[in-house]
Amino acid sequence: MADQNDPRLPALFTVLSKAERPDQAWYAETRIWAIWHEYNGDKRVARAMRDGLAAMSAQRFAEAIDGFDEASRLDPNFAEAWNKRATVFYLMGDLERSIVDVRRTLALEPRHFGALSGLGLIYLQMNRLEDAIKAFEAALKIHPFLPAASQIEALRDRARGEKT
Asked: Is residue 142 within a helix (H) or strand (E), and if so which, with residue range?
C-alpha cells in the first residue's frame, strides 16, 4: 500500500530538503504528492478518496466531506484522507475543524509540508501570526521552495511591528 509509510518517500524527502533549485524541489514534490495519493489497499478507501476529490474539485463540499469521512473511517491511518478533509473544512471556512484534521495528518505524517503550509494559512486567517510563522518555518525545513511559505519574512516583519 502506498501512503505516508511508502519506502520511496525518505529518499524523496532528502532530495526535497536539499534542493538548491526550484526544479529539483518540484520533481521531489510531485513524486511525494503522487505517492501520498496512491492507495492500493481496501478498494473502498480508494473509491471514497476518488469520490471526495471529484466532489472537492466541483466545490460540492458536503459530498467531499462524506467521501473523506468514509476514507478516514475505513483507514484511520491514511494521512491523506485527513489532509483532504482538512482542506475542505478550510475551503468551507470551518477553521477549527480544519486544524483538528491537520493535526491528525501531521501525527501520521510529520513531513506533510502541505498540511504545515495549510496550517500556516489557517493561522493567518485567524490573525495568529506567531503560530503561522512557526507552521511556515516547519514547512520550509521540509520543502525550501514551498510557495505558500515564501511570505515568511513579511510575516516576521508584521509580527515584529505588532509587538512594538
From this structure: helix 129-142
Do 148 and 117 form a contact (C-beta atoms < 8 A)?
yes
| pLDDT value, residue 151 | 80
Burial of 161 (0-12, 13-18, 19+ CB in 10 A): exposed
Task: Give yes or no for a contact between 52 and 68, defined as CB atoms under 8 angstroms apart.
Answer: yes
Place of cell 534542493: 19
Q: What is the rounded CA–CA span in Å between residue 79 and residue 36?
A: 8
Contact, 24 vs 15, CB < 8 A? yes
Q: Which cell is 81 given?
A: 484522507
What CA–CA distance (Å, rounded) separates 2 from 29? 16
pLDDT in tens, 51-88: 999 999 999 999 999 999 999 999 999 999 999 999 99
Percent of the chain with pLDDT over 90: 82
Backbone phi, psi, residue 115, to 5°: -65, -40
d(C-alpha 150, C-alpha 52), whole Å: 29
| CB within 8 Å of 156: residues ≥ 6 apart | 133
C-alpha cell at 99: 486544524
